[in-house]
Amino acid sequence: MDHRRLSVPESLEGERIDVAMAQLFGVSRTRAAELVSQGRVQLDGAEVSTKSERVLPGSLLEVAIPAEAEPLEVVPEIVEGIKIIHDDDSIVVIDKPVGVAVHPSPGWRGPTVVGHLAGAGFRISTSGAKEREGIVQRLDVGTSGVMVICKSEHAYSLLKNAFRQRTVDKTYHALVQGHPDPLSGTIDAPIGRHPGADYKFAVMDDGRASVTHYETLEAHRFASLLEVHLETGRTHQIRVHMAALKHPCCGDLTYGADPTLAKRLGLTRQWLHAVRLGFEHPDTGKYVEYESEYPDDLAHALAVIRD
C-alpha cells in the first residue's frame, strides 16, 4: 500500500477532491474517484464519501493507494470473432469485432487484438510501447471494422508516419439519428477531454484540431446512414462530432443517443463501423485497400431503419 499525505495549497481552494488528488498525487480523476469509493481517502482525518467534496487550503489530504498488478501485460489468447483479411511479411489486416480492445490499458481486463495475434503465433514489430508493439492505429472497444498492424520494423516506420501525415484513407459508416443539415459537409471543431467526465470527450475551444468529412448515403424516417472520412484521428472523434451536430450515432448512449430508439434497433453500442482502409503498401509502394462488412448487430439495426 502506498500511503501519501499532502497539505492542500491555496491554488486548489474550492476544487473537487478528485481534481485535487489528480494534481497533488498524479492519479487520473477516474482513479481518484475509485479510491474515494473504496474508502481510501481522508480529509483532515475524516473519510471522504464523495468525489465532488470540495477542499480548502491547509487541509490535510491523505490517500492509501493499493499496489496493482501490472495492467499492461499482453496475454496471448485466441479471441473469437477476429478475422484475418490480409497477411504478408510486413502487415496483417484484421476485421476487429466489438468488445475487443486493440491493446492492454489500465482498467481494461478484456480481450485484445495484440493478445490474439500473440496467441495465434503472429510475429509483430517490436517498435512502440511494449503493450502496443506494431500498433499504428486504434479502434475503440465499441467500434468494429478493418485495421492494420505492422509485422516488420520497416512497415511500422512507414505506416506510423503515413498516419501522422494523414495520407491513410480511413472510411467509416455511421448510422446517426435524424438528418444532418447539410446532407454532406465538413466538421472542423477541436476535441478535448470532457470537463465533467474523464471517459468522455467534447468539442472544446482548447482541444486538439479535429476534422471530419461526411456524406449522407441513405436518409430514412428516423436516421441517416453516413459515409465518414477522417482527416484526423482523435479518440471518439466521429461520435463527438456527430453529437455536437445533435445527430449522435444510433445506440451511442454515452453521447446522447435516444435509448428508446437504441432498444428498438437492438443496439447495445454505437452504430459505427470502419468499412475501408487504404494506404501505400510499405514494401511495394502500391496503393492497397481493404474492406469489412457490417457485423450482424449493425446490419440488423440498419434493416429495421430501412423497413
Describe this structure in words.
A hairpin with a 3-residue loop joins strand 12 (211-219) and strand 13 (223-230). This protein has helices at residues 17-25, 29-37, 113-119, 153-164, 237-244, 259-265, 296-306; strands spanning 2-7, 41-43, 46-47, 60-65, 83-87, 91-96, 144-150, 169-177, 184-188, 191-193, 201-203, 211-219, 223-230, 272-280, 287-291. It is α+β, with helices and mostly antiparallel strands and 307 residues long. The protein contains seven helices and 15 strands. The mean pLDDT is 92. 21% of the residues lie in helices and 28% in strands. The strands form three sheets. Strands 5, 6, 7, 8, 9, 12, 13, 14 and 15 form a nine-stranded mixed beta sheet that branches. It has a four-stranded antiparallel beta sheet with strand order 1-4-2-3, with helices on one face. The longest helix has 12 residues, at 153-164. The protein has three domains: 2-65, Roll (Structural Genomics Hypothetical 15.5 Kd Protein In mrcA-pckA Intergenic Region, Chain A), CATH 3.10.290.10; 71-160, Pseudouridine synthase (2-Layer Sandwich), CATH 3.30.2350; 166-307, 2-Layer Sandwich (Pseudouridine synthase). This is Pseudouridine synthase. Pfam families: PseudoU_synth_2 (PF00849), S4 (PF01479). Residues 15-80 form the RNA-binding S4 domain. InterPro entries: PsdUridine_synth_cat_dom_sf (IPR020103), PsdUridine_synth_RluA-like_CS (IPR006224), PsdUridine_synth_RluC/D (IPR006225), PsdUridine_synth_RsuA/RluA (IPR006145), RluA_PseudoU_synthase (IPR050188), S4_RNA-bd (IPR002942), S4_RNA-bd_sf (IPR036986).
